[in-house]
Design goal:
alpha/beta; 7-stranded parallel β-sheet; 7 helices; 7 strands; 16% strand; globular; binds NADP nicotinamide-adenine-dinucleotide phosphate
């Protein structure tokens, strides 16, 4: 292991959904540890690139829209990536009895199908070069729990946990660590509707032992760790970063 096992120097990483929220914080953290980071999103990630460059790091913006779940199929070829963070995700809220097929399909495509096929594209390239790599998928507490009024999101995030485990089983011995982070309740666009609902917001806060909602930066350190040599024996884990929510 290198002198600093947490260093990402010499690594090239791709983070999806890096224009805002958790993905932006992860991109900044990976760059802060020395990685060169491709900030991918369906919209420009120039703000994130600016934050990284202002701190002395290296980054670029890449347009990738996972409305086509195969969007990343050619991105990794010959490009030297050794880390992938599948963070892009969407949520649709509606009572299950009224939930539409469109809201089911859109969420499954972005949150689950795109995650699997982006992992596949990354792994094909890593196996071709033989240099090893790290994958971090962003799961959810709804990889373990049911949630309310978010059926396709819950199904997709259970799926992300399962994909993480099968890819671990197939790829750990071939040099790719595959893990997931299950964030708790983090203040981002994803949770705006919950935070604007006084009853739901109070009920959620009351259960969080840390006594506050999480910030995107609270997730970023775990992602940087999982991409680093320090985590080389962490395989197939779905790690909660949730202020203690799952301990209750
Ligand atoms: P967010 O601010 O809404 O970020 C989601 C990111 O995914 C945005 O960059 C978004 O781009 C991108 N995205 C959505 N659809 C896309 C598509 N078709 N192609 C490419 N990128 C797309 O919410 P967040 O909380 O940071 O979410 C990040 C991840 O954490 C998601 O997987 C989410 O499920 C997960 N998560 C969040 C929480 C939480 O409490 N916030 C908890 C557990 C898990 P746009 O900005 O263009 O929409």
């Amino acid at each position: 292991m290198s002198a600093d096992p947490f260093s990402l120097k010499g690594r090239r990483a791709l983070v999806t959904g890096a224009n805002t929220g958790i993905g932006q914080a992860i991109a900044v953290a990976l760059a802060g540890q020395g990685a060169s980071v491709t900030c991918a999103g369906r919209r420009s990630c120039d703000e994130t690139v600016g934050m990284i460059e202002a701190a002395g790091g290296r980054a670029e913006s890449l347009l990738l829209d996972f409305a086509d779940p195969m969007a990343a199929r050619d991105v990794f070829v010959g490009a030297g990536y050794t880390a992938l963070v599948n963070n892009a995700g969407i949520i649709r809220r509606q009572d299950s009895v009224d939930f539409s097929e469109a809201d089911w399909d859109e969420v499954m495509d972005v949150n689950m199908k795109a995650v699997f096929f982006t992992c596949q594209a990354f792994a094909r390239e890593v196996f071709a070069t033989g240099q090893g790599g790290s994958i971090v998928n962003i799961a959810s507490l709804l990889s373990f729990q049911g949630g309310i009024r978010v059926p396709s999101y819950t199904a997709s995030k259970h799926g992300v946990a399962g994909i993480t485990k099968i890819l671990c089983n197939e790829w750990a011995a071939k040099g790719i660590t595959v893990n997931a982070i299950a964030p708790g309740y983090i203040a981002t666009n994803n949770t705006e509707a919950l935070r604007n609902d006084p009853d739901r917001s109070a009920a959620i806060l009351e259960r969080i032992p840390a006594g506050r909602w999480g910030a995107p930066e609270d997730i970023a350190g775990m992602a940087a760790y999982l991409c680093s040599p320090a985590a080389r024996y962490v395989n197939g884990a779905v790690l909660n970063v949730d202020g203690g929510w799952m301990a209750r």
